[in-house]
Write the structure tokens for this entry.
Amino acid sequence: MIQQVFSIVAPLFIIAAIGYFYGSRVRPEMRITNQLIMDMFMPALIFHVMIQDDFYPLQYINLVGAGIMLMLLSGLAAFALSKMVGFSWRAFTPPAMFSNWANLGLPLYVFALGDDALGAGVMLVVAGNLLCFTIGTYIYSGKLTGFEVLRTPIIVAVLLGGVINALGLSLPLVIDQSIEMLGRVAIPLMLFSLGVRLTRVTWHDSTPGLVMAAFCPVVGISLAVAICQIVPMSTLHQSVLILFGALPPAVINFMLAEQYNREPEAVASMVLIGNIASVVTLPLALLLVLSGWVV
């Protein structure tokens, strides 16, 4: 079992580590690459998954609802903890809610649970992005952003893919294969980009980072297990939700905190230390899932 867990998580961390060491040495400008991931490769991956004949969005309704519940409850728990220990709730709450669903989550689900988990992971990415660019930006900025989220390429891909799926349309094979090839770029490039991005954050103000590193897997997994007892889901979806709950904070938190000047150093430490800690916490979460202890 331990060898199986290692074989699943090792490629994730190896690719991210290659990105980290490359980024430390070369200091590449990743702005364009990250924009391509968010504007082209990730939307292509999502769109391709959604237009497949065997993809039925309604089968993910309970999972998406459970994922939203998990993020909101994690946020409430983080809000309460921040008030207790004296952290800024606007800086501490979002990293507890918005984790590495795409960069780390999608590869983790696929490597651990197989290609059947990709659709479930995609729907959680969509739900996470909707919350992040509405509630998340409100928390960081202190103001509502309207319907900006509806103009993001990922959400556009979801809407177009959903329409094509609902109408039962099929794209020409050459177009479908081209989109699939673009989507396949997303997963390894996201892991590499994650590693490069982590070179930008520091250990400064490490106390909230250490707290968050423990908070995310403990609270996330506990809430996911509890939600699985309440919301009816398949075993596969339960496994995805538990791994979803174990994920560390996403780099987007650092970017938003920097954009809105919301204690970016503290948020950076949460992202950095949380992702480093995931080298230990994610294998433990996988061990729980694959052994059947919590599913």
Summary: The two ends are 16 Å apart (CA to CA). The domain at 2-290 is CATH 1.20.1530.20 (Na+/H+ antiporter like fold). The longest helix spans residues 264-290.
